[in-house]
Amino acid sequence: MLIRHLEYFVTLAEEEHFGRAAELCGVSQPTLSQAIRKLEQDLGVALIVRGKRFMGLTAEGERVLPWGRQILSDFGSLKDDLSGRRKGGLTGQLRLGVTPAAMAALPRITERFEERNPLARITASPMTAEQIVQGIEGFALDGGLLWLDDAVAGNAALSRVVLAQEEMMFACPPDHPFAAEKTIPWRDAMTQPLVTLGAGFPVPGDGAGKPLIRAGITCNSLAGILAHLRGGLWCAVVPQGFAALLAPGDGIALRSMTAPALRLPLVAVLSARDPQSPMVRAFRDCLPAQAAGT
């Protein structure tokens, strides 16, 4: 079995189209088809449902797909490791998934990674926590940044590193009446026109399971929240790291929230697999020195 045959199969499974898969692999469509047939012969099973067009994977093909991704990931890590030893620092690509609330913390890590691995590239894609976990488990991501929740904390396939305890803050324009206050109770915040982050944004409840705030607008990025705050009408509930996005002239007030105060662990997640790939190790080594493993 050749690595490139496995690469052709995984690409076809992801693209679900022979023509696109062949183009991405840099080969003709007949060459791609012949390679996959050779892979099937080597494994002794049919991997794809034959037809005039792509019609899906067989049951055996579905089982081979995650193994194929893992083998290709390991092979890529081997090449990166050997190349990095020759050139100083890794080559290849660091693939990260980042939830909107964690974007402000990302530069501390990417700057350190770039300094140590100038020949490598970094891709940071906005994702939900669920997408990040699936990406790491499926070898599509090297790591991620997100808020710690029960699903992540209980996942034995993930290693977690706490980066900070993020306090939830109330944000408002400088001329808003609440700007003069030192702290804002959640019950007062919910009386204002609020914009918050989208799915997965944690807010405390009233004891009966009812959230203490009702967002008028949800955004999938901190930049979207900032744009609404600059407009002058909207207030927001944001993580403490939001302060890094403010320009000197914004004047936006950030106030602690009480009753209750809410702090959430911001964590980096990566595969707990041993051994970890060189890229995953390089990501882990670039996490802030004060971070503690969980």
From TrEMBL:
Pfam annotation, one family: LysR_substrate
Stretches of the chain forming a coiled coil according to its record: none
Annotated PANTHER family: HTH-TYPE TRANSCRIPTIONAL REGULATOR CYNR, TRANSCRIPTIONAL DUAL REGULATOR HCAR-RELATED
Residues in HTH lysR-type domain copies: 1-58
Source organism per UniProt: Paenirhodobacter populi
PROSITE patterns tied to this protein: HTH_LYSR
Record keywords: DNA-binding, Transcription, Transcription regulation
SUPFAM superfamilies documented for this protein: Periplasmic binding protein-like II (SSF53850), Winged helix' DNA-binding domain (SSF46785)
Descriptive protein name: LysR family transcriptional regulator
GO CC, alphabetical: protein-DNA complex
GO molecular function, a single term: DNA-binding transcription factor activity
Superkingdom of origin: Bacteria
Family, similarity comment: Belongs to the LysR transcriptional regulatory family.
